[in-house]
Structure formats: C-alpha cells, structure tokens
C-alpha cells in the first residue's frame, strides 16, 4: 500500500509540467488545441477544464503524499518494533558466555541505534527509490511518445549517474561498517562508566574517564568524517551530468520546435520534465547514504540473530509441583572458553529435601556448580540429573522454574519494592508479597521506607543497603516457593546483625526443600546435612560439620581460622 501511494503521488507530482504544456497549447493553437479536440472549442471553457484538472491533480498529489508518509512511517515503526523484539528475545536465549565476551554498551547499540537506522531508511529512503523509478518510467515513456527524436538527450547521463551511484555505494559500505563499530565502542564506554560512576568518583578519575570518552568519541567522529567526505562529493558530480542533459535538450529541442518538428507545448513540457527526470537523481546520494547506514546497522542486527543458541531447550516437561528435588552430578567436567578446566570429573549426590553446603577457597569452582545446575552453561563431560532426568533433556523453563537462586550479587530492577519481590511470580497477590517479606525479615524495614512497598528502589536497588537488597532477594525466593533453593554467598556482604536476621529467615524457608548453600562463613552452614569441600574443581572432603572437624583436614583448618582458634 505504501508503494502504491508513493507511485501515485509521483504520477500526480509529474502532472503540472504536462498541464503547463496543455495551457501553452491552448494559447498557441486555440480551437485546434488538445482540449479542443475533445469537443470544447470555447477558449474560456478550455481554461475552465484546465483549472479543474489542476485542482484535482494537486489535491490528489497532496492526498497520496499524506498516505505514503503515514504508511511508510508506520511500516518503519512496525519493522523496528518487531526486529527489536526478535533481536532481544534471541539475545535472552543465548548462553552467558556470549555476554561475557561482549560489552553491554555494544549490545545496547545494536538493539537501539542500529535498529533505528533501518527505521530511518524506511521513513525516507524507500519512498525516494520508488519515486525515482516511477519518475524514470513515466517521464521516459512521455519523452518517447511525444518527442522520440530528442528523448535520447534526456537519458544520455543515466548510465553515468547509475554507474556512479553503484560505485558510490561500494565505497561507502566499509566506511559505514566502521562507523557502526565505532559507535558501538563509544556506547560501551559510556555504559561502562555510568555503571561504575561510584568507583570513578571515589578514585577522582573524572578527568581520566572524560579523556577516554573523548578518545572514543573522536574515533567515531573521524570515521564519520571519512564517510561524509565521500558522500558530500556525490551530488555536485551528478549535477554536472544533469547540466549537460538539460542544456543539450534546451538547445537541440528548441531547434526542433523552431523548425516545426516539435510542438511548442510539447517543448515547454519537455524542458520542465527533463529537470523532474534528472534532478531527483541527485537525491540518490542522500538515499544511498541512508541505505548504507541502514545496511551496516542491519548487518550487525542480523549477525546477532544468526548467533546460534548453544543451550538446547530440552523436551521433557516437569511441572514444579511434581519436582522432588533430588540432584546428582555424575563425573562432570567443565571449562570456560579459552580457560583451564574448572570442574574435573566431579560426582556428588544431593538427596531430595536435604540441605547441603559447598565450601572452598576462591576459584575452587563452587559458583560454577550453580551455573551448571541452572544450565547457564553446558557441561563438556558427564551428566547432571534432577529426579533422575538428565538436565539437557529437561525443558529449560521447567528446570529454572523449580530453582530459586539467592546470590551475593543481588540485582534489583528499577521499580517498587513490591514489584521486585514479585519478580518472577508476577501474579502474586499483595498479601502474599507481604507474607514473603515477613518470612525474609524484610517487612519491618520496608514499612519504614517513605512509601512502604511502593517505594522506588532505584536502578540496581541503589537506594537500599546491601543487607536490605539481600533480604528482598530472599523474599523473592520465598514468594517463588521453589522445590530447590540455592544460596550463593547469601550473607557474605552484610553485617552481623543482618546476617543473623537473614540466617533466621533461611532456617524457616529451607524446611522441606532441597537447599544448596555456598558459603565462605562456615558458621552459616554448620547445621547442613552434608558439607562438601572443593579445591581446584574437585571434591576433597565431605561429611557433617562434626565429621569434618574430626578429619582434621582442609575444613577443620578453615574452621579454626574463622573461629579464632588459629592465628
């Protein structure tokens, strides 16, 4: 529909020169004019017909201009919307390794600015291309019908203009690819700096970071300047070709009209039409500029969409209410990309309903086990099962629905306290949210906030303390009520009073559910049914707190250090 409206708009836009030619024809030929041949001999009557034709032409031209702008812009918005959702949805399904190798700012540049470039082209460029083609077809046909002897003059510069446009496009493509790369790096720098603004301020590194942003911005400006320098020369060159065609037609066409071989009205129309034919070609420079920007951006979006999803979604359904919670690692080995093996031939069993703890030094692989259980990464060897079902065969959404994760790095979304507690349990009732907060011992501090549960927590929960954020994360897990609960250093960054409150809430929510606790503070996991000690990706000790103390091994040594029995 947009294409049809563009074509019709251009057809009516090309009509005024023809009407001028008809008017000249009426003045010169009078009763022998083109309109007179339709049976209207009266001169005034002919001009009245011409008047109505002019009004109709301009009204229809304006109407179809409104229609094509409306349709093209809506089409651009719709494609922009759908493409952004497709790209974002695909991005969400990629494994964590993809995000670790790319910057947030670079991905934001793809989802925002790159997709916007395509919308800008559809707003303007697509219509320009269609109207140029329509102009060539309509005016070309008119020339060959009305004055075939001079038609070749108007089309003489066409091959040069089209060849120049293609060459121009090829030269621009790599330059705009570089522009998109540079803007991605600039966005990455800005995003990274805004996220780390506290660190920048604390180290008084404002001037240093300003210089780094200036370097990235200058690189973007230089790459843009290269593309602009090339695109700016296009239109002046094209004008020279148009000048040649126009002057040749003006001269030779005029001689044909004087000699009587070309009607005066036709000559008048052709002089106007040759400008309408060739002048829009100057806009091809801007159109190709938009096109190359859009293609460079679209290629980046398509590269994202073409990234294969490494995590298999699984095909065995397991409703949450059917999950018992038995977990088993069987000879599991795993290594991150381009790094040494993190987990080495590890086997452990976690009976349903039990609480187990995993301890060990930093880098021993404790948190990696959690990521493997949630299938953020795929194992390279061995098997992990839930209730006897291989995780790689289990529906990924069902797997993650039955696991509640409370990590040391709590992420809160910009929104209210209540919305953050209900995140993941979006249909929760207000009374359920309050009950979860009470279990997590968060209700009391929430009610002291300015708007209670309606208080905005700020981006990443920056308006709350670390302990408050931790308790909201526990409330979120309580509300989810998962069969399996994972506590990854859940009390590592809080004070003793907050830790005691969190510990009390954890004792309540771990009842009758499988719990995996990863901890540095051994006092928080001494009551676990079984404690596993990891070193360098392997299990080196296991047993209850008392059994491990009796072994006088790694765990016993860690306990003595933390309890002050060993200096």
From TrEMBL:
Q: Which SMART domains match?
A: AAA (SM00382)
Origin, by domain of life?
Bacteria
Which Pfam families does the entry mention? ABC_membrane, ABC_tran
Where in the cell does this protein reside?
Cell membrane
One GO cellular component term, please give it. Answer: plasma membrane
Q: Which PANTHER family match?
A: ABC TRANSPORTER B FAMILY MEMBER 28 (PTHR43394:SF7), ATP-DEPENDENT PERMEASE MDL1, MITOCHONDRIAL (PTHR43394)
Protein name (record): ABC transporter, transmembrane region
């Amino acid at each position: 529909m947009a294409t049809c409206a563009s074509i019709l708009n251009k057809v009516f836009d090309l009509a005024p020169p023809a009407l001028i030619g008809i008017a000249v024809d009426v003045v010169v030929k009078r009763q022998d004019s083109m309109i007179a041949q339709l049976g209207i001999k009266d001169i005034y009557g002919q001009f009245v017909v011409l008047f109505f034709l002019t009004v109709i032409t301009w009204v229809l031209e304006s109407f179809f201009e409104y229609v094509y702008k409306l349709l093209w812009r809506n089409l651009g918005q719709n494609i922009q919307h759908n493409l952004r959702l497709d790209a974002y949805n695909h991005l969400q399904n990629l494994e964590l390794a993809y995000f670790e190798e790319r910057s947030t700012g670079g991905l934001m540049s793809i989802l925002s600015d790159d997709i916007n470039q395509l919308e800008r082209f559809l707003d303007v460029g697509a219509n320009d291309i269609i109207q140029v083609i329509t102009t060539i077809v309509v005016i070309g046909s008119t020339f060959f019908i009305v004055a075939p002897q001079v038609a070749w003059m108007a089309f003489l510069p066409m091959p040069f203009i089209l060849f120049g446009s293609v060459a121009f496009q090829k030269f621009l493509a790599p330059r705009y690819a570089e522009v998109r790369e540079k803007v991605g790096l600039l966005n990455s720098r800005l995003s990274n700096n805004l996220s780390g603004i506290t660190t920048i301020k604390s180290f008084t590194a404002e001037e240093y970071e300003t210089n780094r942003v200036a370097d990235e911005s200058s690189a973007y400006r230089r790459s843009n300047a290269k593309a602009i320098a090339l695109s700016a020369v296009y239109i002046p060159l094209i004008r020279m070709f148009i000048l040649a065609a126009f002057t040749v037609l003006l001269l030779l066409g005029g001689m044909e009209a004087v000699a009587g071989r070309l009607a005066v009205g036709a000559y008048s129309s052709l002089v106007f039409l040759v400008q309408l034919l060739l002048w829009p070609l100057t806009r091809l420079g801007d159109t190709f500029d938009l096109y190359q920007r859009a293609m460079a951006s679209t290629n980046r979006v398509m590269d994202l969409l073409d990234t294969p999803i490494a995590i298999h979604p699984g095909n065995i359904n397991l409703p949450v209410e059917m999950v018992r919670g038995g977990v088993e690692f069987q000879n599991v080995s795993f290594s991150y990309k381009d790094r040494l093996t993190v987990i080495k031939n590890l086997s452990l069993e976690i009976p349903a309903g039990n609480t187990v703890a995993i301890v060990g030094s930093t880098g021993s692989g404790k948190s990696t086990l959690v990521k493997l259980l949630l299938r953020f990464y795929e194992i390279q060897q061995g098997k992990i099962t839930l209730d006897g079902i291989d995780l790689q065969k289990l529906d990924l959404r069902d797997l993650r629905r039955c696991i509640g994760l409370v990590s040391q790095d709590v992420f809160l979304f910009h929104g209210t306290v209540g919305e953050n507690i209900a995140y993941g349990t979006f249909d929760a009732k207000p009374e359920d949210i309050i009950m979860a907060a009470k279990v997590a011992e968060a209700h009391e501090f929430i009610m002291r906030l300015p708007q209670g549960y309606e208080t905005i927590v700020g981006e990443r929960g920056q308006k709350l303390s670390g302990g408050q954020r931790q308790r909201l994360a526990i409330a979120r897990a309580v509300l989810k009520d998962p069969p399996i609960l994972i506590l990854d250093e859940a009390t590592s960054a809080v004070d003793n009073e907050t830790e005691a409150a969190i510990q009390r809430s954890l004792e309540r929510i771990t009842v009758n559910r499988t719990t995996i606790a990863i901890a540095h503070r051994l006092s928080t996991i001494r009551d676990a049914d079984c404690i596993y000690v990891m070193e360098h990706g392997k299990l080196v000790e296991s047993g209850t707190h008392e059994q491990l103390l009796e072994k006088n091994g790694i765990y016993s040594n860690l306990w003595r250090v933390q309890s002050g029995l060993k200096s």
